[in-house]
Amino acid sequence: CHRLLGHDEL
Amino acid sequence: MNIFRLGGDLAHLLAIIILLLKIWTTRSCAGISGKSQILFALTFTARYLDLFTNFVSVYNSVMKVVYLAAAYATLYLMYVKFKATYDHNHDTFRLEFLILPAAGLALIINHEFSIIEVMWTFSIYLEAVAILPQLFMVSKTGEAESITSHYLFALGSYRALYIVNWVYRYYSEGFYDMIATLAGVVQTVLYCDFFYLYITKVLKGKKLQLPA
Questions:
Q1: How many structural domains comprise chain B?
Q2: Among the four A5, B118, B134, B201, which has the fewest Cβ within 10 Å?
């Protein structure tokens, strides 16, 4: 899975 | 952002508001598990360490602050202001049985072995089981006030909606996060028997009575 820098979900 | 995730966040916010209102208006935290509330505060603290380092959107930052503030406000109400109404005798779940395995697993199974990522993973695993002391307490007392069952229904719905969000994001943008998704499935499954009781009883105006 491509990882976002950090998480964008709560 | 999609409607499933927005719906999930709003269900989560609703649950937190219902709980605060229940404690504040009845000036009592009877039937509420302080231990679950400790786990929720721990979950948000570990998950939102990036509050000042990883800006996603105003919405994201505002909601993180609201969740953190509400979690600690609930702890204050339960353990300080209305301490006398806290039901110690029925809130006996051993927190170390949840915190230690979540921490251990987070060190082993994570996306990246960095402080912030391991803490995020810990918060994901902990949130999945954070409701257990509350469900355990309801099973011990054998019943729950209807306001408490509305709180639990909203709280259970939030992660169920997040699962729909993850399915939607997978098909619409190829995004997936196996750790969050699997933990979210576990978290939602834990509510299943409660959902059944809520729909078959509480929605018919009956009190939530667990079969003794």
A1: 1
A2: A5
Q: What is the 3-state secondary structure (H, E, C) of B46-70?
A: HHHHHHCCCCCCHHHHHHHHHHHHH
With an 8 Å Cβ cutoff, is B175 touching chain A? Answer: yes
Residues of A in contact with B180 (CB under 8 A): 9
pLDDT tens string A1-10? 444 568 999 9
Mutation target among A1, A2, A5, A10 for the B interface, most CBs of B within 10 A: A10
Structural domain of B49:
3-209
Distance in angstroms between the alpha carbons of the first and the last residue of chain B: 43
Whether residue B124 has pLDDT greater than 90 = yes
State chain B's mean pLDDT as an integer: 96
